[in-house]
Amino acid sequence: MLSSEHFYDIRNRYLTSATPIQSPEHLKGRDRSLKSLVDALHTPGRHAFIYGYRGVGKSSLAHTTALQIQSSSGSPIFVSCDPNSTFESLIRDIARRSRKPIDERLHKPGKLNVGVNVASIGGANIGYESKSPASDPPEVKSVNEALDYLLLAASPHKKGIVIVVDEFDRLQYDSCHSKFATLVKQISDQAAPIKFIFCGISGSVEALFREHESVFRSIHSELVERLALNARLEIIDDASGALQIGIPDGFKYRIAQISDGFPSFVHLLADKMFSAAFEANKDRVDSLIYKTGLQVALRSVEFSLKKRYEDALHKNTKKYEHVIWSVASDHNLDSNVETIWKNYISIMETIGENSLARQNVNTKLNQLTTESYGRLLVKPRRSNYSFDEKMMRGYARLRAEDSGCSLGKENADLVRM
Ligand SMILES: Nc1ncnc2c1ncn2[C@@H]1O[C@H](COP(=O)(O)OP(=O)(O)OP(=O)(O)O)[C@@H](O)[C@H]1O
Ligand SMILES: [Mg+2]
To answer: Within 13 A of 266's CA, how many CA atoms are on the CB side?
Structure first.
């Protein structure tokens, strides 16, 4: 048995439900994506856009890629957008994060050899960081000036710099997208040693290109799909090996299935199971540990998912929950009403409760798409329903599992409890 300190240290390295992965060793199921991103980013003038559903693993792929391609002389720069971010504020964030090398070089004008006209950067403000560490980089007034800043930041690194702009979909102002598109185009045209990796949900890729179609040629776009079953199992196997706590196949597959391919659920559930085993002084996850781990995991799920789910239930009725489970049970993200009905009947049989009439289930499905039910579901096509927030499927599966109803038996033949 590991010492407590050792256990938590290993657990935090292997099970990271709240932080992006940084290394290929821990990044499961993304070999092909990683390879094509590294390849694209090594191509002169190419940048990348990583997109996919929330929680699917975009930042992890971006971080690992950035660390793979950044030259050994520096670290990638990571910035994240929020609804108040602007193009200018993000460039200033990037400048701030690369500030040390800029500071040093601005102090030693004789050694400054950046291949750009430094006097043009911020004009009179050029010494902005020289005296006070608290002072901010000057305003960025144009895309050209932004490029000058980035060239300055890149200059100490022989092979240039890699900048990850995460949560690009949270940018609200259209002008930001077009400025980034212009910047990327200029960097590509000038073969400047700067690589951008943007991350966001699908719509934000189009927003970046809308006003600047020719930027398409400069961007490699990489769709991140839900994590394949094998990759989910590998996360659990690796942690199990490193923590020296066994886990029967049945529980392993259940965790993988509950997660529905959203890796943070795999990390969260495995973390809680192994921690429960460790605290109970056991070297193997058993039924009791599994149940305890599930309950702890349920309590730790992020608040926004929980709240949205609870709001849709309208507090007083379980009836909506069974309908929600019927949608979450299906492997497909969009489910046809016919399939939902079949899932519903099977769920009601499993839990031994009376079914509602089919019309009643249809009404509830429709209600769940309305504002007063928090738009938990959307209707992508006539007769089809899908969760608005795809990651919600994992939470619904977790709730069902805790109530003794296993959803997502798409690989039922693999499951032997
Ligand atoms: N390929 C992977 N292998 C193992 N774990 C992963 C993988 N991808 C992501 N994870 C884990 O899943 C969690 C969520 O991943 P990540 O933050 O990268 O997703 P995201 O798509 O950026 O989410 P969001 O949309 O909320 O920003 C992380 O905590 C990370 O540890
Ligand atoms: Mg992210």
So the answer is: 30
Using the mean position of ligand 2's atoms as its centre, give its distance from the Cα of residue 79 in Å: 11
Q: Pick the atom of ligand 1 nearest to 16's CA.
A: 31
Compute the distance between CA of residue 71 and CA of residue 160 in angstroms, rounded to an integer.
7
Nearest atom (ligand 1) to Cα of 224: 21
Tell the burial category of 1 from Cβ atoms under 10 Å away from its Cβ (0-12, 13-18, 19+): exposed
Task: Inform me whether the pLDDT recorded for 122 exceeds 80.
Answer: no
**pLDDT for 63:** 96
* 51 bridge partner residues: 200, 223
For residue 189, what are its two tokens? 């045209």
Q: What is the DSSP letter of 284?
A: B
**Which stretch of DSSP H or E encloses residue 105?**
helix 99-107
Distance CA 56, CA 66 (A): 18
Antiparallel, parallel or unpaired: β 219-223 and 47-51: parallel
Domains and CATH numbers, the chain: 4-15+229-300 (1.10.8), 31-223 (3.40.50.300), 303-408 (1.10.10.10)
pLDDT in tens, 339-377: 999 999 999 999 999 999 999 999 999 999 999 999 999
Separation of alpha carbons 375 and 32, rounded Å:
35
How many angstroms separate the alpha carbon of residue 15 from the centre of ligand 1? 11
Among 395, 299, 283, 273, residue whose Cα is nearest residue 11: 273
